[in-house]
Amino acid sequence: MNLKNLYEQEIRFVYGQVMNELIEKNPNVFCLEADLSKASGTNPIVLNEHPKNFINIGVAEANMIGVAAGLTADGKIPFCATFCCFATRRVYDQITISVAYANNNVKIIGTGPGITQGANGGTHMCFQDIAIMRAMPNMQVFTPCDAYETRSVLHYMAENYGGMYMQLLRQQLPAVFDESYQFQPGKARKLRDGNHVTLVSSGYMTHFALKAADELAKEGIGVDLLHCPSIKPFPEDDLIESVRKTNAAATVENQNIIGGLGGAVCETLSERYPVRVKRLGVPDRFGEIATEEYLFEKHGFGTEHIKQSCRELAR
Amino acid sequence: MNRDKNTIVTHLNKKDKTMTSLQENEFEQLAAELRYVVTDMICRSGSGHLGGALSLVEILLTLYYRVMKIDPNNPQWTERDRLVLSKGHAAPILYAVLAYRGFFPKSQLGTLNADGTKLPSHADARTVPGIDMTTGSLGQGLSAASGMALAAKKDGRTNNVFCIIGDGETNEGQNWEAALFAPHQKLDNLIAVTDYNKLQIDGFTTDILDLEPLTDKWRAFGWNVLEMFGHDQNDIRRTFLHAKSLRNGKPTMIIAHTIKAYGNKIIENTAGSHNIKIPDKKTHEQHLAALPDGAFPLPY
Q1: Which chain A residues are closer than 8 Å to B135 by Cβ?
Q2: Of A63, A68, A73, the CB nearest to B178
Q3: Average pLDDT of chain A, as a whole number
Q4: Distances in Å between the alpha carbon of A123 and those of A84, A89, A117, A147, A177?
């Protein structure tokens, strides 16, 4: 793969190309789809290159998880992709029993997280997938922010045993990292160094957190920006190290503020190093069809809201 | 039922060292002993799914002694036949059959559902040698069995994958997703069995959620469909051997007509047999005495 071009295309096509890369490295890797293979970026990229490793299950997500569990019994490594809402909440019991409880090596890819579902509207906007997957034993949960990180997380998933869930951003996004990036589970990435406030972001919202941090720096507010691609295992020590310095933390995620990144930060800090925390994200509401700007404004988690919360906490 | 007798004879004559040469009378004895042992296992643990376990005694014995290609000394043998007990609550009888077949010591059978046990109420592949898939939430096993059958096809292996689903379990929609998937993928190495004892927890299947016409449904989905009486060892053997011989591009569903809690005169053919409670020693003894063939020495 031409790595230099990774950030110049939609990330779903990166997913397709990385799947090819993984299959070429290990023919036991399988690409499972539930009639959304074009949206996931594996059709035609994987379908044409490795048709034997491409299985379209049809619009039957429960069966997709079950078939994947059966494939693992013979050492296959199935990656099951569909929209976040169908990949998690629709098949939560199938994942719980046939994957996590049974300790089968199934990889689940939720595409189009949170508000990035856009025109599909409220029925498809899943704001709770991180929270519910996090609450499951034997399940690791990742939410990368760009093409390079996505690629590295996928390699980690293929090379390590266990049930894992990854949110896949489908659209083209600016590169946050570069070719040298190596994903580490349970570690945060320090994207900006500052002494006044800790800002914890994940996935899509890291792009807005970066902008907020850079603009606040011009105001003289030092933001310690931690990007968390690994929600579970959660980078507790990295977080504690940062708040020892700043004594306050804001969180921002493309999810309900209940139980996800904000929840993980609050759980960690309340037990180990209590400081004031402000959670930004969707305040326990369903999604709706609207522009991103409208949704940020309505729910209060766009760049300006991040900046305002950081200013208040930095005081 | 449409059986090709010549095919059956060919298969019966084939020597396979992974199968036992259990005679008819020995089979009857073993079935009686396993009924006794599984009843005691469940009773001593205080409660359990006895009805659905007793309806599978002859079917599981046939599979593990006469039909499946397995090696008790090598439970992970790649070429082996697999079995997914999708109605995972019948695990105690599967544990008993596996132990008697030599997968693990029979002495462990007395630990069913005890604190810290490796033999939990629902089938557990993590802790029990010989169990091929962890089950317990109904409706998921046929999908997993389809995945196993697909893996065999992808790898060019000739092994069969067996899957046992319950009739009540058949209410779950996921079965019908798998019912579409397996014929589409031409999984003729998949042989499923419906334990059709006509009872589910709340009553008769015809009263709760009728499955009929059941054979027509599976046939319409593109499966070979066979029927058998699930307590007649010869009918069971013939049907499984016929199913193995088909390999015609379609998966096979065997509708096994069974009797819930078969053999236990107190609870036979009652919905209440699904999960029995054993409050005291007296009830325990009543259930053992309700079996027709007397007592057997317990292996634990």
Answers
A1: 97
A2: A63
A3: 97
A4: 11, 12, 10, 27, 33
Radius of gyration of chain B (CA): 18
CB-based contact, A74 to chain B, within 8 Å = yes
Instruction: State pLDDT tens for residues B267-289.
Output: 999 999 999 999 999 999 999 99
Residues with Cβ within 8 Å of residue B107, at least 6 apart in sequence: B299, B300
Distance from CA of A86 to the nearest CA of B (A): 14
Tokens standing for B68? 């499946």
Phi, psi of B15 (to 5 degrees): -85, 130
CA distance A202 to A144: 7
Alpha carbon distance, N-terminus to C-terminus of chain A? 47
Give the separation between CA B231 and CA B81, rounded to whole angstroms. 22
pTM recorded for the entire structure: 0.94
A-proximal residues of B, 176-235, CB under 8 Å: 177-178, 180-181, 184
pLDDT digits (tens, 9 = 90+) for B34-79: 999 999 999 999 999 999 999 999 999 999 999 999 999 999 999 9
Is there a contact between B223 and B255 (Cβ–Cβ < 8 Å)? no
- Which domains are present in chain A? 3-168 (3.40.50.970), 189-313 (3.40.50.920)
B239 touches A: beta carbon within 8 Å: no
Mean pLDDT of A169-193: 97
SS3 for chain A, per residue?
CCHHHHHHCCHHHHHHHHHHHHHHHCCCEEEEECCCHHHHCCCCHHHHHCHHHEEECCCCHHHHHHHHHHHHCCCCEEEEEEEHHHHCHHHHHHHHHHHHHCCCCCEEEEECCHHHHHHHCCCCCCCCHHHHHHCCCCEEEECCCCHHHHHHHHHHHHHCCCEEEEEECCCCCCCCCCCCCCCCCCCCEEEECCCCEEEEECHHHHHHHHHHHHHHHHCCCCEEEEECCEEECCCHHHHHHHHHHHCEEEEEEEEECCCCHHHHHHHHHHHHCCCEEEEEEECCCCCCCCCHHHHHHHHCCCHHHHHHHHHHHHC
Q: Is B270 left (phi over 0), alpha (psi -120 to 50) or beta?
A: beta
Interface size between A and B, measured as CB pairs under 8 A: 101
For residue A62, the chain B residues in CB contact (below 8 A) are 139-140, 143, 173-174, 177
Cα gap A57→A59, rounded to integer Å: 7
* B254, B226 contact by CB (below 8 A): yes
